[in-house]
Design brief:
198 residues, alpha/beta, L,D-transpeptidase catalytic domain-like, two-stranded parallel ribbon, 28% strand, globular, disordered N terminus
């Protein structure tokens, strides 16, 4: 993808970057009982530098997804990201969108944890218990190939604001539904690299 190089410095020019919320550590066992903390609700933000309208930017160190709605403003969503080295940074394009998507673990996921994933090798239909949640944005590379990276919902909303996934970016189902309705096929996506925190 072409376009200006985006660094964390650009994103952290957002008005709220200086006062990051504390991350939740407790949760209930069902999505129906879990209440989104106020600090994790979507909020409007402004940027110091202009950004390409329509772009999605994910900052994994702060568990933040920015959707750029105007050159200097956008919406901030709290997200969960890939754990450890499973997080993959880079520039992508939204190549497909699906409501209540089906899910099939990758061969790598099955190899890493066969006890958990092998039973789903043939796939799992969409629904409230599906790991991709209510909506999914499918990330494609510059050649138009599916990367198997997704921005999606989750049946475990308490896992946002943490690094727990197999590489995808996850949002609360209500939040991915709002983002899904607004984002167009072909939208650029920037997954910023992780940076060691002091």
């Amino acid at each position: 993808m072409n376009g200006p190089t985006l660094t964390r410095r650009h994103v952290l020019g957002a008005a709220l970057a200086a006062s990051l919320p504390l991350r939740a550590t407790a949760h209930t066992q069902t999505a129906a009982d879990w209440i989104v903390p106020d600090a994790y609700r979507p909020q409007a933000v402004r940027f110091r530098d202009e950004q390409p309208v329509g772009t999605i930017i994910v900052d994994p160190d702060y568990f933040e997804l920015y959707w750029i709605t105007a050159p200097r403003s956008g919406m901030l969503f709290t997200v969960g990201v890939g754990k450890g080295e499973l997080y993959e940074s880079g520039r992508f394009t939204v190549g497909a969108k699906k409501e209540w998507p089906s899910w099939t673990p990758t061969n790598e996921m099955i190899a890493r944890d066969p006890d958990r994933y092998a039973r789903y090798a043939e796939g799992m239909p969409g629904g409230p218990d599906n790991p991709l949640g209510a909506r999914a944005l499918y990330l494609f590379d510059d050649a138009g190939n599916d990367t198997f990276l997704r921005i999606h919902g989750t049946p475990e909303p308490w896992t946002i604001a943490s690094a727990v996934s197999n590489g995808c970016v996850r949002l609360v189902n209500d939040h991915i539904t709002a983002l899904y309705d607004a984002v167009e096929i072909g939208a650029p996506v920037v997954l910023l690299p992780k940076v060691e925190q002091a």
